[in-house]
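From the methods appendix. Each design record in this collection lists the tokenized structure first, followed by the designed amino acid sequence. Records were kept in a plain field format so they could be parsed without special tools. The example shown here is representative of the layout used throughout.

RECORD:
FOLD TOKENS (601 positions):
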């Protein structure tokens, strides 16, 4: 500027404003949360006034056009900082006004080395601002414009542009090209990060995932990340890949999350009084990542089951042989498949991630041994997640984790050929679910209580079916097996009835019309109870007749309900078809049994 002393004073004011805004503001008291931000704003307004004065319009020895361009850029920097300042103090309209002034001042020169980084950062902040207002489409426009500008600049110029703060630095303080490039790439990474969120809001899920992956990759490349936040974002992204059954990509994200998260513990807390809370937060985040691993193992096993089961839900040996032969052919393409995954990080980091990946397969297991290996990894993460999410304090989270553990046992049992061992796996499920159900207050946890009732009923039902199958292999049913079948059937009925009772109104009346979310479970419960009464074994003819009558009543309920509410048919087509069949057959069987029981007169 005209006088070196005045220019030095201006630069000092600017530095002080940045310090107040970025450093001192973190120490502001709770009753004055924006004290330092307001102090920074005053300094920025002073700089703005000086730049707008006539004296500032002239630069010593510089042509008028060059002086005007210099002043415009300096003003744009100040308008940008004022825009950010107002936004951070929740004054969005004023923030928008300053940010728009910044972009207007730079419009003609936005592709120059002096202006491109500042222009992109202004557009990023306008995108955030409109996103906070809930105007996601407007936010998308600003952010996509910033993305396009970056691409155009890199194509047409590509040299590291000036960082906005450099405009208020002395020549000897200016940044190296390496540092400029790092800061410019960081600004562009922010563009992609915010676009990922915008696409998520607009339910452009695939595009959101793509941008999230690119953002994570760039954050590692330019060392612009917080380990815990990065790891959580990577673990969250893994769950998107799970929905697409992209197990390789999902596993890579989770392995990367583990490796990067391990860096978090290496950073000591700056304030001792925060250490305990910091450690608590770290334990929680670690447990959250563990839960994502549980979902990975569970989904991989469930996907395998889906590809191997026959039309009655049992393992199909022919399909199993076919898939094993197919896998051998695909071994050579394994390396090509690996390249489909977008690898994270430098070569050293990649090695650590790949080592972590080797602990679990990303290929669907095809037999019990392979399934067990995936199961054990999932089970280890269950124990890790439960260490933090304990029943006392995290009821909902704890129960969800135990339900996932139960689901892991359920899908592992599918691969087990021995019925007795399979039965024991289901017994493990009962042992983990039943105590939780007993301790749960349904008044506060009705939905979870219903889930547990239904799952316990289903598990006892499955065990009863297995015991019947074991009994069918015997020449004659022994009293122990009969007792076991009846006991399991009665326990299944008990929990199905508890579930159905939970649907009754305060006067204990069952609803005439069921809500959509409980329609299928309620009908399945009725159908299974009907079938269970038909499975009860008794030598007492009268008792047998009573069981058949009860069975008929439940089958009839399904048929009658669907006649009154035809829209329900679609939800329970198979069960309805079998119920109609039984409603037709049971009366005849009952008449025959009555005839046997009635002595000749």
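DESIGN:
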């Amino acid at each position: 500027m005209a006088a070196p002393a005045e220019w030095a004073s201006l630069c000092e004011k600017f530095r002080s404003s940045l310090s107040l805004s970025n450093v001192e503001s973190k120490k502001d008291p709770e009753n004055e949360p924006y004290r330092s931000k307001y102090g920074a704003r005053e300094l920025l307004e002073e700089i703005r006034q000086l730049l707008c004065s006539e004296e500032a319009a002239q630069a010593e020895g510089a042509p008028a056009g060059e002086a005007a361009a210099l002043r415009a850029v300096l003003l744009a920097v100040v308008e940008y900082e004022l825009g950010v300042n107002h936004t951070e103090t929740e004054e969005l309209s004023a923030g928008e006004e300053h940010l728009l002034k910044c972009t207007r001042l730079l419009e003609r020169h936005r592709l120059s080395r002096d202006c491109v980084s500042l222009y992109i950062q202004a557009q990023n902040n306008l995108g955030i601002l409109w996103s906070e207002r809930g105007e996601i489409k407007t936010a998308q426009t600003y952010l996509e414009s910033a993305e396009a500008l970056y691409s155009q600049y890199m194509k047409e110029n590509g040299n590291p542009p000036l960082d906005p703060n450099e405009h208020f630095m002395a020549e000897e303080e200016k940044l190296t090209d390496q540092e400029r490039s790092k800061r410019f790439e960081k600004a562009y990474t922010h563009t992609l990060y915010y676009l990922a969120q915008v696409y998520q809001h607009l339910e452009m899920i695939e595009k959101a995932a793509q941008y999230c992956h690119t953002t994570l990759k760039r954050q590692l490349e330019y060392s612009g990340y917080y380990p815990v936040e990065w790891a959580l974002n990577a673990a969250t992204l893994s769950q998107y890949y799970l929905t697409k059954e992209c197990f390789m990509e999902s596993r890579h994200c989770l392995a990367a999350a583990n490796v990067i998260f391990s860096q978090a513990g290496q950073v000591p807390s700056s304030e001792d009084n925060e250490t305990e809370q910091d450690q608590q937060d770290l334990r929680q985040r670690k447990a959250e990542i563990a839960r994502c691993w549980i979902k990975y193992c569970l989904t991989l096993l469930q996907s395998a089951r889906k590809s191997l089961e026959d039309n009655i839900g049992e393992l199909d040996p022919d399909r199993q042989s076919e898939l094993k032969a197919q896998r051998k052919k695909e071994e050579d393409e394994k390396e090509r498949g690996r390249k489909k995954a977008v690898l994270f990080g430098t070569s050293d980091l990649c090695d650590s991630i790949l080592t972590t990946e080797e602990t679990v397969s990303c290929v669907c297991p095809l037999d019990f041994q392979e399934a067990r290996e995936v199961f054990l990894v999932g089970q280890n993460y269950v124990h890790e997640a439960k260490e933090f999410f304990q029943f006392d304090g995290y009821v909902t989270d704890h129960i969800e984790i135990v339900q996932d553990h139960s689901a892991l046992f359920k899908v592992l049992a599918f691969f087990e050929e021995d019925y007795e061992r399979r039965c024991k796996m289901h017994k493990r499920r009962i042992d983990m679910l039943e105590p939780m159900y007993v301790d749960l207050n349904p008044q506060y946890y009705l939905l979870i209580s219903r889930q547990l009732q239904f799952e316990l009923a289903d598990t006892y039902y499955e065990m009863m079916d297995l015991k019947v199958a074991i009994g069918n292999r015997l020449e004659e049913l022994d009293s122990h097996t009969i007792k076991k079948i009846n006991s399991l059937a009665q326990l299944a009925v008990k929990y199905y009835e508890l579930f159905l009772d939970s649907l009754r109104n305060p006067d204990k009346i069952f609803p005439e019309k069921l809500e959509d979310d409980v329609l299928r479970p309620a009908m399945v419960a009725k159908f299974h109870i009907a079938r269970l009464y038909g499975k009860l074994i008794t030598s007492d003819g009268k008792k047998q007749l009573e069981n058949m009558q009860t069975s008929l009543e439940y089958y009839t309920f399904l048929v009658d309900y669907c006649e009154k509410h035809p829209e329900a048919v679609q939800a329970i087509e198979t069960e309805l078809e079998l119920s109609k069949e039984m409603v037709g057959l049971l009366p005849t069987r009952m008449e025959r049994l009555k005839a046997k029981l009635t002595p000749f007169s």
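APPENDIX NOTE: The chain has four domains: 4-220+227-232, 233-264+281-309+338-417, 434-502, 509-601.
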